[in-house]
């Protein structure tokens, strides 16, 4: 019986002690009903980047068109002897397509005939000139006799005048004959130019590859008629070298000041999830574009593609490396965003903050202590490099701050510097109440504002 009484007394005494402790913790603002989520301070590399979206493009593309009109009769053969098609590798001067050349062949024959006719005209004009020269020699002899006999009265004045006139006409005819020959020669030149043009047009009916490359687009089919007017119709699109590619990235004007030639770049494509590709900035195009009042610039990123895994026109998710710090102390971004309740702060720190709020900040004390009487302790954001802030460490049932200066961030972790922080130190990134994970709200962890919110007081949509 006495043993039972002792047990009961001990149980009652323990209950009183537990209740007193709970009352003390509640009175002093303790967090006995809460648990803090922590993460260690790590040492590693932090890379600050600018994210953008671009398109993979061949480094040099040649658009092969048609300069004449006609029907596509056939396609040529690639280097492997197969009919040219998408992805065919071709050499320079490889025949890609053949256009119907009937009309242009006729034009060549007609131009050739005009050239031959011009040559015949030249030959006739030369023969006429020889005749004129013979008549000139005859007229010259007649005039020489008339000059000897005329003064002696051996011939009449009429005969004298006729001999002189015939000589002058024969001289003039020589000039006419020479002009006729020159005109005939010029007609030959004109006919030859027309022949060259006709032959050139005939050659245009055979579409050849101007460069060595790969066909990435075939835009015509056999039997299709192409019409060349002011613009040459495009038949094939060739990429000269698919082992070197470019990524054309659209960068917002707010970020373009951080982009420069030679800057390291990494990017991913949906075709190869989990694989990262690397390149560098080639140039920034100056012809900005405006879409819905947003100004963007096109940045050319050069990358190697030796295995040809990158296909033209893939969408790339690009990261421009702005800064890189290696071997620095880092904490999760949530550690810099999390702010404790006032009653969660260590009593010593809380008393100092209240005293500072009453008497003003002490020498060297941060002015943010004035906000300690509010519901949440004031902590500077780490999203701006160089800003000061605080991280919180567990101090018994409470937390206490450690002042730090934020460095660069990679979106997940942020570089921190300050006294009292060391590698492996556990810092608070959130809190979790009994049976409820509230770290997402209390720590400032990222959440989707567009996700549906489910309340606990309304059910069934009413």
How would you portray this structure in words?
There is one protein chain. This protein has 462 residues and is of the alpha+beta class. The chain is built from 6 helices and 20 strands. The strands form 4 sheets. It has a 6-stranded antiparallel beta barrel with strand order 2-11-15-13-12-16. A 4-stranded antiparallel beta sheet has the order 3-10-8-5, with no helix packed on it. Strands 7-6-4-9 form a 4-stranded antiparallel beta sheet. β14 and β15 (294-304) form a beta hairpin. α2 packs antiparallel against α3. It starts with a helix and ends in a 20-residue tail after the last helix.
Q: How many DSSP E strands?
A: 20
The SSE order reads HEEEEEEHHEEEEEEEEEEHHEEEEH
DSSP helix fraction: 25-40%
Q: Which class do the helix and strand fractions yield?
A: alpha+beta
């Amino acid at each position: 019986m006495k043993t039972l009484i002792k047990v009961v007394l001990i149980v009652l005494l323990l209950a009183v002690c537990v209740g007193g402790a709970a009352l003390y913790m509640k009175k002093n603002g303790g967090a006995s009903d809460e648990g803090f989520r922590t993460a260690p301070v790590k040492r590693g590399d932090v890379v600050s980047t600018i994210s953008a979206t671009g398109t993979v493009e061949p480094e040099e593309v040649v658009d092969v068109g048609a300069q004449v009109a006609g029907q596509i009769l056939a396609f040529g053969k690639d280097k492997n002897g197969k009919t040219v098609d998408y992805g065919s590798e071709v050499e320079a001067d490889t025949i890609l397509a053949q256009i119907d050349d009937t009309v242009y062949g006729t034009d060549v024959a007609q131009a050739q005939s005009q050239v031959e006719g011009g040559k015949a005209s030249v030959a006739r004009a030369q023969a006429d000139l020889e005749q004129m020269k013979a008549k000139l020699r005859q007229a010259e002899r007649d005039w020489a006799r008339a000059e000897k006999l005329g003064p002696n009265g051996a011939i009449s004045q009429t005969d004298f005048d006729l001999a002189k006139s015939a000589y002058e006409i024969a001289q003039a005819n020589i000039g006419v004959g020479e002009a006729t020959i020159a005109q005939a020669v010029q007609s030959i030149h004109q006919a030859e130019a027309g022949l060259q043009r006709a032959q050139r047009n005939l050659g245009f009916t055979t579409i050849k590859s101007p460069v060595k490359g790969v066909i990435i687009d075939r835009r015509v089919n056999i039997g299709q008629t192409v019409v060349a007017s002011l613009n040459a119709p495009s038949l094939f699109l060739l990429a000269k070298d698919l082992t070197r590619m470019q990524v054309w990235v659209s960068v917002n004007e707010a970020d373009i000041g951080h982009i420069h030639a030679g800057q390291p770049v990494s990017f991913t494509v949906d075709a190869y999830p989990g694989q990262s590709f690397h390149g560098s900035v080639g140039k920034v195009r100056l012809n900005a574009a405006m879409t819905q009042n947003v100004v963007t610039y096109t940045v050319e990123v050069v990358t190697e593609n030796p295995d040809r895994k990158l296909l033209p026109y893939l969408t790339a998710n690009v990261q421009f490396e702005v800064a890189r710090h290696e071997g620095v102390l880092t904490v999760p971004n949530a550690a810099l965003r999390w702010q404790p309740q006032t009653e969660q702060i260590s009593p010593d720190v809380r008393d100092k903050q209240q005293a500072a709020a009453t008497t003003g900040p002490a020498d060297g004390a941060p002015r943010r202590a004035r906000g300690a009487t509010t519901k949440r302790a004031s902590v500077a954001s780490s999203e701006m490099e160089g800003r000061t802030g605080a991280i919180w460490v567990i101090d018994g049932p409470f937390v206490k701050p450690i002042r730090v200066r934020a460095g660069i961030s990679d979106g997940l972790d942020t570089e921190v510097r300050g006294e009292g922080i060391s590698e492996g130190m556990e810092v608070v990134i959130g809190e979790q109440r009994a049976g409820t994970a509230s770290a997402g709200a209390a720590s400032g962890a990222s959440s989707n504002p567009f996700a549906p919110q489910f309340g606990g007081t309304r059910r069934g949509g009413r």
